[in-house]
Amino acid sequence: MRKKKESLRANILESLKNRKKSHHKPAGKPDRPEGTLIASYNVHKCVGADRRFDPERTSRVIHEIDADVIGLQEADTRFGERTGILDLRRLERETGLIPVPVAGVSKAHGWHGNVVLFKQGTVRDVHQISLPGLEPRGALIAELELARGGSLRIIAAHLGLLHRSRAQQTRLIVDLMNDGSETPTILLGDLNEWRLGDRSSLSTFQNAFGPLPPAVPSFPSTLPLLALDRIMANRRGMISAVQVHDSPLARIASDHLPIKAVVSLETLDSATIMHSRTA
Q1: Are 72 and 114 in contact (CB under 8 A)?
Q2: What are the tens digits of pLDDT across the range 33-80?
Q3: Cα(275)–Cα(11) distance, rounded to whole angstroms?
Q4: Which of 27, 65, 66, 61 is closest to 44 using CA atoms?
Q5: With b meaning 16 or more CB within 10 Å and e meaning fewer, what string describes 184-212?
Q6: What's phi and psi for 133, nearest 5 deg?
Q7: Domains in the chain, number
Q8: What does the alpha-carbon distance between residue 98 and residue 70 come to, in Å, rounded to a whole number?
């Protein structure tokens, strides 16, 4: 227990130090790394840290990130018909991002608030998964043929607030990974887990994704202390170190900061895959 408290304390101290440094940086659009950029962003139904509903501001943050593939959470209203909140046509005109199509929804952007957008490539397959638990949660699985070359499977998920629900949801996602597919896979989204070590519900993912990457605090956006948002891959060396997209606009547009990483498929071989069946 003491070790876990020390880890959380270290995250808090690191966040305070990084935020202090960020105040001395000139405002502006952060540099975009080279390569295929993937990102995850809980847009909090376009309600910012100032409690103001502003879809335009959310779209500007997505524009800032300039990702090739991005998963959004809470992009629809939560109840009723789950109406989409963003202007996706305008977003496509301005960024080139188009949504992965989902079946059976007329007014929503995605599935249970999860949306996957991509710039260049082809959608090979899409699956909509309802996740178990007390809350209505889901995952969107999209297999993409990238314009840069190579295939990529994206699992975009938003896990529940209750630990018991997350434990069920992580087990289901790992089961889905046992389909025999050799497609490189990235799991991204708001996984709602702040615990570290064995008590974390994310430890289940080690069977499918190997050792979890270092936690990168992204919540709350005004002073990120908890690594609720994650990006992980089922092959070693497939993604670069995960970073937060920390801009003045991102700090206010949602209660989460976006996270991002660069994906590389060129240097991978089948020996690096980490399916749970080999664990």
Answers
A1: yes
A2: 677 999 999 999 999 999 999 999 999 999 999 999 999 999 998 766
A3: 30
A4: 61
A5: bbbbbbbbbbebbeeebbbbbbebbbbeb
A6: 135, 175
A7: 1
A8: 10
Question: In the numeric block, which tokens belong to residue 164?
Answer: 């018991």
228, 242 contact by CB (below 8 A): no
- pTM, 2 dp: 0.86
Report the residue count for the chain: 279
- Peptide bond connecting 220 to the previous residue in cis, omega within 30 degrees of 0: yes
The residue assigned the tokens 């809350």 is: 135
Q: Structural domain of residue 245, as residue ranges?
A: 2-25+33-278
CATH number of the domain at 118, please.
3.60.10.10
Residue range 232-259, pLDDT digits in tens: 999 989 999 999 999 999 999 999 999 9
What CA dihedral angle connects 82, 115, 190 and 255, to 10 degrees?
A: -70
d(CA 163, CA 143): 29
Please enumerate, as own/partner, the contacts of 4-13 that have beta carbons within 8 Å and a separation of 24 or more: 4/195, 4/196, 4/197, 4/199, 7/196, 7/197, 8/194, 8/196, 11/215, 11/217, 11/225, 11/226, 11/227, 12/225
Rounded-to-integer distance, Cα 104 and Cα 138, Å: 14
